[in-house]
Design brief:
The complex is a heterodimer. Chain A is of the alpha/beta class. Chain A is 38% helix and 18% strand. By secondary structure, chain B is mainly α. Chain B is built from three helices and no strands. Chain B is rod-shaped. The chains are: A alpha/beta, B mainly alpha. At the A-B interface, helix 1, helix 4, helix 6 and helix 7 of A face helix 1 and helix 3 of B.
Chain lengths: 474, 90
């Protein structure tokens, strides 16, 4: 039996997460025992699980514990894919923030409170945000300030204000600052007009100044109290501010792409049919749609019963997708903001706290539709490197080749020197054949584009694959 | 932050004892609402940072005041409209 403690679970001495034989466990240690029991006995656990706000768990025998300090061992229901706040679009972070405030409100009604407000404790499960840290609750005592207030402002409010007032892509700052955007940084980056609004003024600008002035020193050594009524008003202020925040994604590079794409109706319908057919043949359960844009083909995968991760670098496209998914009640697609030329790396302590994108794979099937020309031409990536990386991410691949004379490729080449003599279909096929076996391929009517169904070679076959002949026909 | 087995319960008991021992706290009862002036130390593991707590205390009080004022104002407004409506009907 191999026990592996989660590299992200070390801050709270009250417990931690570990894996054993592929099963996820959460160990409860003595400091959290009373709070955990209160969570159950107060009825809060039952209420939150019934409403889908907290991940459910079963209690496992104490013998399953990873260390002797254990007082309980839980077996939480796993979420399909761990995602991080720096990979979420505006709407996802906003919903995660509202969930955190709702959890705190409901907890206070039952004599508990959140002892942390980390955005990393929220995950998207079945299309909705859910708290995964069962040990985040502690007994609330009248008069106690909310210990997680600063963390909430850094993990949620500050990045949301920056996304709303400055740029929708600024959620990526959370990848630089793993404990949330420092409030003094947010205060400097936010427009001056936000000083005139009560909520940003209090929760960010003056908050940052108070931290800078007093730091960890409590003047006069006095203990500060916040009445329940005042705390509820503070939470209400945070909630109404976040609910009112807006970001209009229209006009970003890709958000309009759907209207401008290169197919006629017949071509698009045939592409959909081909993707659907290939997905059925792969029997994929987990699909990663790379360069998903507004998720047209993630939906094809989801309609076929698979769970899809719609990966794109454009916050506007993903925001549109997220809103549509919510509106349509589609729960099998997770939008994920990732720049494929600079995908999420391993971050945090020892590079292991937050896993890289590749470490969270591999997917059963990758969709790389209308993507290769962007990687090869816009990012100057040779086919060999693209094929190698894709082979590390998924077992099967549905990939589209867009030739050089396609209007979209011509657009990428406009105004720059064509330094891509190797950008040809035969070269693409040759380089990809070192990593994949082509199972099937078909042309898309009305275009010169072609779609391939490929299967990753086994290690042995990959090693045996001979270098492709260097044909460079135009 | 200290951690001890059953820390919160222990702290709660300690806090209740100190509340009973100080007669000034008894005066803080208002309409059945007990306002504890000695907060219960939480078993939280994150650093709340004093500068943030100070701001929270002030912001929360201010927001509670504003909320009360807003509610009172809206009550006055609704009463005013009610009275005005009655007169118009007459």
């Amino acid at each position: 039996m191999s026990t592996e403690r989660s590299p992200a679970s070390f801050r709270d001495p009250g417990g931690f997460v570990f894996h054993r034989d592929g099963v996820l466990y959460r160990q409860v240690n003595a400091p959290c025992q009373t709070d955990y029991e209160l969570l159950l006995s107060s009825g809060l656990y039952g209420e939150l699980v019934a409403d889908g706000l907290l991940v459910p768990h079963e209690e496992a025998p104490l013998e399953a514990a990873a260390t002797p300090e254990a007082v309980r061992v839980l077996r939480p229901a796993p979420v399909e894919l761990i995602s991080y706040p720096y990979e979420w679009c505006f709407g996802q972070l906003r919903d995660a923030a509202l969930l955190t405030l709702e959890l705190q409100r409901r907890a206070m009604e039952r004599g508990l409170g959140l002892k942390d407000a980390s955005a990393y404790n929220i995950q998207f499960h079945e299309g909705r945000p859910v708290l995964i840290d069962t040990l985040s609750f502690e007994a609330y005592g009248e008069g106690t300030p909310w210990v997680a207030y600063r963390q909430f402002c850094q993990h949620f409010l500050a990045p949301l204000l920056l996304m709303s007032h400055v740029d929708g892509g600024l959620g990526r700052l959370l990848g630089l600052h793993l404990d949330g955007v420092p409030l003094n940084l947010a205060s400097r980056l936010l427009p001056k007009r936000t000083w005139l609004r009560l909520s940003p003024l209090l929760h960010v600008h003056l908050h940052a100044r108070s931290i800078a002035r007093y730091g960890r020193r409590m003047p006069g050594g006095r203990k500060r109290t916040v009445s329940r009524r005042s705390l509820e008003a503070l939470l209400e202020s945070l909630k109404s501010t976040i609910r009112r925040l807006r970001w209009k994604p229209e006009g970003t590079q890709w958000a309009r792409y759907e209207e401008e794409h290169a197919y006629g109706d017949e071509g698009l319908e045939e592409k959909r049919r081909l993707v659907r057919e290939y997905l059925e043949r792969t029997r994929a359960r987990a699909v990663w749609d790379l360069g998903a844009n507004v998720g047209t083909f993630s939906r094809v995968a989801a309609d076929g019963g698979a769970r899809a991760v719609a990966i794109d670098s454009d916050p506007g496209a993903l925001e549109l997708l997220y809103r549509r998914l919510k509106k349509d009640g589609e729960r099998r697609i997770l939008p994920l903001l990732v720049d494929l030329t600079n995908p999420s790396p391993g971050l945090g302590w020892a590079h292991r706290e937050r896993a890289s994108l590749a470490e969270r794979g591999p997917a059963d099937t990758l969709l790389a539709l209308a993507l290769i020309h962007h990687l090869a031409i816009s990012a100057n990536l040779p086919f060999a490197l693209i094929a190698e990386w894709l082979a590390s991410l998924g077992r099967t691949l549905i990939v589209e080749f867009v030739p050089k004379d396609d209007p979209q490729t011509r657009r990428l080449l406009a105004g720059r020197k064509d330094v891509f003599p190797d950008y040809t279909r035969s070269r693409f096929e040759a380089e990809f054949s070192r990593e994949f076996r082509t199972v099937d391929a078909a042309d898309i009517p009305g275009t010169d584009r072609r779609i391939y169904l490929m299967e990753r070679l086994t290690e042995r076959r990959r090693a045996a694959a001979t270098p492709a002949p260097g044909r460079t026909d135009a | 932050m200290r951690f001890s087995p059953g820390g919160v319960a222990e702290e709660m008991n300690r806090s209740e004892t100190s509340t009973r021992a100080a007669p000034t706290f008894a005066a803080a009862r208002l309409g059945g609402l007990l306002i504890l002036l000695a907060p219960l130390p939480a078993a939280a593991y994150i650093d709340p940072i004093s500068g943030s707590v100070i701001l929270q205390v002030i912001a929360a009080a201010l927001l509670a005041g504003l909320l009360s004022f807003k509610r009172a104002w809206s009550w006055v407004g609704s009463r005013f409209r009610e009275v005005l409506g009655r007169r118009t009907e007459e």
